[in-house]
Specification:
The longest helix is centred in the middle third of the chain and has 15 residues. The protein has an 8-stranded mixed β-sheet with strand order 1-2-3-4-5-6-8-7, sandwiched between helices. 29% of the residues are buried. It is of the alpha+beta class.
Length: 195
């Protein structure tokens, strides 16, 4: 299953593997390399080492899972799935996806989206949420293609790093749909031809 090498639509190869503590410094470099506008709507400042420390702690406690993608030794995408193991929402996960601008349109975003849904199915989750601002139209379109549906719009819910307010969209995907489409075997050899 992992690590695994996948060919993108543009014939570039990427390697996929779940993040470990050893990846924290390289992942920090990835986030620091992104243009400022890509970081504008993230929940926390992921360019600081404290963020990576928290992520490693969450991974080691199995509350969070990150899948990384690298091309020629450089991380080019990170998808995260996290959920609580207690309470009335323990069956719900939340996904976040960040892809290097140079790899958008290559099929990598769809591939990473598929992988996070497969992981949610493996973990026995019932539902996966994503949150984004209304300004992030490319992200909204991507998750619609993956099968996510709009659930809520929260007015002026996000305060960005410049002090501007934005409406927040919450979208959801029910894992039963994934299992119906791809089967319980979870074929992880899916290509990106349709991405």
């Amino acid at each position: 299953m992992y690590p695994r090498t996948v060919m993108l639509k543009d014939q570039r190869e990427v390697e996929l593997w779940p993040m470990t503590a050893d990846d924290a410094e390289t992942l920090l470099e990835f986030y620091r390399s992104l243009p400022p506008e890509d970081l504008l709507y993230l929940r926390e400042d992921v360019t600081k080492p404290d963020s990576m420390t928290r992520w490693v702690d969450d991974i080691e406690s199995e509350q969070s899972w990150h899948l990384l993608a690298a091309c020629e030794g450089r991380i080019v995408a990170d998808v995260e799935l996290d959920h609580q193991y207690y309470g009335w929402s323990q069956h719900v996960g939340e996904a976040r996806l960040v892809v290097d601008p140079e790899f958008r349109g290559s099929g990598l975003s769809m591939l990473m989206g598929y992988e996070v849904l497969a992981q949610a199915a493996d973990e026995g989750l019932h539902k996966v949420l994503v949150q984004m601002t209304v300004d992030q139209q490319a992200a909204v379109s991507l998750f619609q293609k993956l099968g996510f549906q709009h659930e809520a719009l929260l007015k002026e819910h996000v305060l960005d790093q410049h002090g501007q307010l934005h409406d927040l969209i919450i979208m959801a995907y029910f894992i039963d749909n994934f299992l119906t489409q791809y089967g319980t075997a979870l074929n992880h050899d899916k290509t990106t031809d349709d991405c």
